[in-house]
Amino acid sequence: MYLYREGISRVSRDLREYTKNTKTRLLIGFLALIFLVGDGLILLFYGKEAGIFGLVCMLGALVPVLLVIIFLVIADKVVKKNQ
Predict the structure, then answer these.
(1) Rounded distance, CA 43 to CA 53, Å?
(2) Three-state SS string across the chain, please?
(3) Distance between CA atoms of residues 47 and 53, nearest Å
(4) Nearest to 15 by CA among 29, 26, 1
(5) CB within 8 A of 40, min separation 6: which ones?
(6) Residues 25, 1: Cα–Cα separation, whole Å
(7) Does 73 have pLDDT greater than 90?
(8) What angle do CA 57, 27, 48 make, to 5 degrees?
(9) CB 43 within 8 A of CB 51
(10) Which of 4, 8, 13, 81 has its C-alpha lying 20 to 30 A from 64's C-alpha?
(11) Contact by Cβ (8 Å): 17, 7
């Protein structure tokens, strides 16, 4: 993203790439916060067994979300290919 030439830094002006990177980082941060803080608090207050069960439940909740995302990505690629 950053280009260095002769000691001068130039920032890339591709705003679509910047938006995509920002959204990806925000999503990763959100998931890390939910899993680490959320499950960490469950583990702290209720013990090891509840923490493991909380982790299993959160992973189970991600399965339908990931299936929908995968379907949308595949549908987007098929539509772009047929245009």
Answers:
(1) 10
(2) CEEEECCEEEECCCHHHHHHHHHHHHHHHHHHHHHHHHHHHHHHHHCHHHHHHHHHHHHHHHHHHHHHHHHHHHHHHHHHHHC
(3) 10
(4) 1
(5) 51
(6) 15
(7) yes
(8) 30
(9) yes
(10) 81
(11) no
- Rounded to whole angstroms, how far apart are CA atoms 38 and 53? 12
Which two tokens mark 59? 């992973």
**The pTM is what?**
0.65
> Quick one: pLDDT band at residue 51, thresholds 50, 70, 90?
very high
Listed residue (65, 59, 23) closest to 38, CA to CA: 59
- 34 Cβ contact partners less than 8 Å away, ≥ 6 residues apart: 58
One-letter amino acid at 46 equals: Y
Angle, vertex CA 25, rays to CA 7 and CA 70, nearest 5:
130
- Looking at residues 56-70, what average pLDDT do you find? 94
